[in-house]
Amino acid sequence: MTSRSALLMAPALAWLTGLMVVPCALVLALAFFRRGIYGGIEYTFTLENFGMVLNPLYAGIFLNSARIAGTATVIAVIIGYAAAYAIAASPRRLQPVFLFFAVLPFWSNYLIRTYAWIVLLNREGLVTQLLRWLGYEGEPPALLYTEGAVITGLVYNYLPFVVLACYAPLSRLNPELAEASRDLGATALTTFRRIVLPLTLPGIAAGAVFVFVLSIGNFVTPALLGGGRFQMIGNLVYDQFLTANDWPFGAALSMALIAIMLLLLTLQAFAAERASSRVVVREDAT
Amino acid sequence: MKTLLSIDAVSKNFGRVVAIDDVSLAIRENEFFALLGPSGCGKTTLLRMLAGFETPSGGKILLDGKDISNVPPNRRPVNLMFQSYALFPHMTVRANIAYGLEMERLPAEKIRGRVDEMLATTQLAALADRKPEQLSGGQRQRVALARALVKRPRLLLLDEPLGALDKKLRATMQIELKRLQHEVGITFVIVTHDQEEALVMADRMAVLRDGRLLQCDTPHEVYERPADRFVADFIGVMNFCQGRLDASGVGMPDGSCIRGRLPEGAAAGASATAAVRPERILLRPTGDVDNRAAGTVEALAYHGLDLQLHLRTDLSERPFLVRVTADAADRQPLAVGDRVEIGWSAADTRIFKD
């Protein structure tokens, strides 16, 4: 490494070290201490916080979070891939416009967007009013504070990531590959299954990991749309730090969460590395 | 020979742009047919209609007498070799070639047999387990060809098949393609903008311009008897002299006359162009020749086998090109600035009405 590139990297490295590595190390260290009787931390080494993470009660919350995040991921990938496919198939000059609209929600506040869903899903919210207008007469359906509401919120918030991640490989795919498949006798469906899907899988993997990792650690959406009835790991960590005052256990939970995320991101990076050795070029026809 | 494919008054427009304008062609069984024209002439559009990726706006395409104009590409016994080759990057050479047979739902051992056979024919057996990215341009071209041929189509379409190869490899592949076509006995329709490629490979060729068919004949006929001035200029090298028609040929502004066979319906006085190929011109003619001229050597281009002489004459604005064999050039050395006489016969002169 030349001194010049070291100089250019220094600010970023300092930022990462100061605001990422050091706090994470502190949290990791906390996890090995005991909780004080009146809250606070007792500085004696212990592994019992990690033992507690494996307690069926908490492990159950982990599994439940993974299930909710997994469901949100599957739904987001299906919707996002379809949207990305449609954008990539639209006229070239319109594609940036559609992408802009797909990403537009990002420019507003996460909380505001989540509150908007409360307005929509409320007991007498817009969805119920729509049903009434369509002729529904019974009790207003319980939409808010359900698992469905949490999943809806997660899908809605992270969908743009999937659209962007899937759009990239789809737009780079040489359209002649699909034509060649058709020419060789494949139906449109077979062409999608055997040519388009395998070649755009890296994008799907990237988008899916993104949604899953962000969902499983999320605590705002379950708190607001789940009404506190659906605890996810994020809420559990939040509670340990701010309500139960058990920082060491909260730290151990955080570490478990980070470990899951790192594992997934590493797997995804490996898969992407393998896929990128395979170049998909769009060659211009004359 | 039996007609395999009839293109019957086919037109294609994209919005207001007319890509193909009332083209009719008959392609015969086992023929090596070339669609030739400058870029934008509509040849690729025509090929895509034959493959089924575009439907004609007017007219019909008949294969073995059946109208296939609206049959989707996966249900036509026609295969296309793409200009970009469009090999599936996530599949090995073997899997690429087997793909089309799997779509026919043939039994596995039958697919294996036919793929092996095709790998041998195209000399790809040693590369069967490689991915496309591990192949050279020439090897990829062979895989693309094998993938289309293994389906044993009634008609194989090739879109600029040699365009991505370097000059030397292209010359080898031209012969190779012709040999292969003869061996497999499949009708080939090739699209090219390279007139030399068409002349070398094709049994017959069609010259297109701005979506219209200008001429369809054997390479020899197209070269020797071009239908119009554009074809004459596009295929090979041609000298043009513009003037006015008179009783025996084209009268030049300087009062001389270039003799040649007059086109039908020629009216004396009409504007016309006389054309002659460089290799038909005799240098310092001794005997009796129909047409004579003199010029000053402006440049000499050495091509190895022959020499191209650029002569400044009174006949045309552009320098007159004369091909001199290396032999003749050795006997009569030439230098820039020399004044030379040339001559050619009326039979070698083509006259086009403007």
Notes on the protein architecture:
The complex is a heterodimer of chains A (286) and B (354). Chain A is mostly helical. Chain A has a domain at 53-106 and 158-279: MetI-like (MetI-like fold), CATH 1.10.3720.10. Chain A is built from twelve helices and two strands; from the N terminus they run αββααααααααααα. Chain A has a two-stranded antiparallel sheet. The two termini of chain A are 44 Å apart. Mean pLDDT of chain A is 89; it is low at 279-286. Chain B has nine helices and 20 strands. Chain B has a six-stranded mixed beta sheet, with helices on both faces. In chain B, a hairpin with a 2-residue loop joins strand 9 (204-209) and strand 10. The longest helix of chain B has 18 residues, at 167-184. In chain B, 40% of the residues are buried. The chains are: A mainly alpha (286), B alpha+beta (354). Chains A and B meet through helix 8 and helix 9 of A and helix 2 of B.
Helix-strand layout with pairing:
The complex is a heterodimer of chains A (about 290) and B (about 350).
Chain A: H1 3-30, E1 34-35, E2 41-42, H2 48-53, H3 56-89, H4 95-103, H5 110-121, H6 126-133, H7 147-172, H8 175-183, H9 188-216, H10 220-225, H11 233-242, H12 247-276
Helix pairs in contact in A: 1-12, 3-7, 3-9, 7-9, 8-9, 9-12, 11-12
Chain B: E1 3-14, E2 17-28, E3 32-36, H1 43-51, E4 58-63, E5 66-67, E6 78-81, H2 93-103, H3 108-121, H4 137-149, E7 155-159, H5 167-184, E8 187-192, H6 195-201, E9 204-209, E10 212-217, H7 219-224, H8 229-234, E11 239-245, E12 249-251, E13 257-259, E14 271-276, E15 282-283, E16 291-302, E17 306-312, E18 320-325, H9 326-331, E19 339-344, E20 350-353
Parallel strand pairs in B: 3-8, 3-9, 6-7, 7-8
Antiparallel strand pairs in B: 1-2, 1-4, 4-5, 9-10, 11-12, 11-14, 12-13, 14-20, 15-19, 16-17, 16-19, 17-18
Helix pairs in contact in B: 2-3, 2-4
